[in-house]
Each structure stands twice: as C-alpha cells, then as structure tokens.
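Workshop exercise sheet. Pairs work together: one partner reads the sequence aloud, the other fills in the structure field after running the prediction. Swap roles for the next sheet.
Pair: D.N. / O.F.
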Amino acid sequence: MVSGALQIAGLLLGGIGMIGTFAVTGMPQWRVSAFIENNIIVFETIWEGLWMHCIRQANIRMQCKLYDSVLALSPDLQASRGLMCAGSVLSFLAFMVAIIGMKCMRCAQSSWQAKGYIVLMAGLLFILSGAIELIPVCWVANTIISDFYNPMVNVAQKRELGEALYLGWVAAFCLIAAGAIFCSFCRCCEKTRSYGYSAPIHYPTHSQHLHGRTESSYSKSQYV
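Structure field:
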C-alpha cells in the first residue's frame, strides 16, 4: 500500500516536472526588459526566449518573432536551447519508463528484480533530466544578474529574471524529487525480494522426536 502511494506520488511529480520542462522550453519569458531610469519606455515590455523574442505594448498588443539564426542568440541562450531539448527528451523517457514500472506492480515474485531495475532506471532518468534542466536555468539567471549589476553594460540592454526561469527551478525540483522517490522505491523492492526468497526453517515434528527417542532406547538396550 505504501509502495503504491510512493509510486503514484513519484509519477505525479515526474509528470508535473515533464510538463513544466516542455513549457519552459517554449516560453519566451526567459529574459525580461528591466525598467531602469527613464531610458526604457514604460508601456513596452521585451521578452527574450530560446526560440523567439516578443514585444508587448501596454498589455494590449504583443508581437513575437522567431530568431533568424542561432547566432543571433547569446552564448548562454544557445547552450540553453540544446540542454533544454535534451532535458525534455529525458524527462519524457523517464515518464514512460515509470509508467512501465507502474504496470508491473502486480507481477509475479520472480519478476521483482526486473521491476526494480525498471524503477531504478526511471529514477535515474528523472534525476538526470532535472540536473540538465538546472544547468541552463542557473546559467541564464547568473548572466542576467551579472549584467544587471555591471556598470559597463548599457541600461537598455539590462534584463531581469523572467517567469520561465522560476518555472524551470520548480520543474527541475519536481523531476529530482520524483527520481529520488523511484530510487528509494527500488531499494524497497530489493528488500522485499530478499525477504521473499529467504530459506524456510524446518522444525522437527512430534513423530520425528518419537522416532529419535525409540532409536536411542534401542541403542541403549543393545549395549546392556
């Protein structure tokens, strides 16, 4: 019962992390224009994402345009595009493997070892996808903060942390938590399997006691 609840909780966290990873990869709110001094028009907001940049005017009209080339991106966004795609694929594979492990919950006792390996693989994939997602999110956030406090950077080029970065941290945490749950469940499977295959202890029956006692009495009478 407890193991089933842990698996369901891990699957839910992994699904939330996977959907969040897909959303972060496609969202344009990675870098948001900062309103500093009077050099930036207040009613205009600039969003920069991995695939497009958008201009939103007074919460009424928004225009988005895909980047003409990958070279138009900064180095951190270029690397983030590839890492987020890899993290999305790994999170999807981990979710599928976890579903396969969930379907084997009522397998025979002899297949518990295979089930443990499947669940362990799902947990490791979840942890790996979460770690891969943390790299670009933290990298872009560090670049934004460094440029924001750098006096050599033009005010019009300074950016703030967008909503996609916060969502990326939450999604990565969900993926890593799901991986930890599945890895701990694999340990539970190993313990259950070792307990299930423990050798039974045979105790002598009453007839065996009588038989041994009779043989011992016969042996004593022969010596007499």
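Discussion prompt: The beta strands are 31-33, 44-48, 52-57, 61-66, 159-161. What would you look at next?
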